[in-house]
């Protein structure tokens, strides 16, 4: 173990598996390479230019890390009750950065790199997500857009409130996650998996939502060119509106769906549509077995 105390500086240290570097208040580490070991910051410590290789762990607690590169298999944690700061951190493919409690910082998450928000109180305004980056949201409310080419996954207690999924972006609502009032833009995708909940999403032209088995979509709006796919075991309810040019494909359960003129609802074998209304729209049953399609349709066409 290497301990760096007040006024002390360590330069060019390499920490291998089982090794540990402790940086205390007033201590500084420069050009450190963490390869399987750990670099631990205590309150008031600092470091410049740390490289984290596979198996390496860096934990920044109430201290400052300036410039870091997290390579595949490496982990950077930033947080603590009094707040840790990591600036100019670059997360490469396979690398992982966790920001929790009062952590803050900036940098770049590259394609294939992963960044996780955990809890509330972080400041991540300086973090840039490149196409192909992965964002995990746990016990946290996110409100920004899911950028082009990026993937955002909502974990337990994770919420995406508002914002848009841009072209090439993917929003995945996992078990315990919630997406509320999100807009899926052209080329964007929303996937609701088992235990996930989507409420009030708007599927714009070219936007696609897929509700997998055990997933729930509520009060969605499917605009012209938008598509909602309810897979076997998935559920859509709470007044889903299919506008003209919109399409809902049902292999699971769809309740309270209103299909407007020019809109379409397709019910596959094993799919069920209940208590819906065709207001000039079209309902199609595949195969043509009315037992799979339970719908009150006073104005529309059932084929």
List keywords for this structure.
303 residues; mainly beta; 17-stranded parallel β-sheet; 8-stranded parallel β-sheet; 40 strands; 52% strand
Polypeptide structure, described:
- Residues 288-303 have low confidence and may be disordered.
- This protein is an all-beta fold and 303 residues long.
- The chain has a domain at 1-130.
- It has a 17-stranded parallel β-sheet, with no helix packed on it. Strands 2, 3, 5, 7, 9, 11, 13 and 15 form an eight-stranded parallel β-sheet that branches.
- The chain contains no helices and 40 strands.
- The protein has strands at residues 2-4, 9-11, 14-16, 20-23, 28-35, 38-41, 46-52, 57-61, 64-70, 75-79, 85-91, 96-100, 104-109, 114-118, 123-129, 134-138, 141-142, 151-154, 159-161, 164-165, 170-173, 178-180, 183-184, 189-192, 197-199, 202-203, 208-211, 216-218, 221-222, 227-230, 235-237, 240-242, 247-250, 253-255, 257-260, 264-267, 272-274, 277-279, 282-285, 301-302.
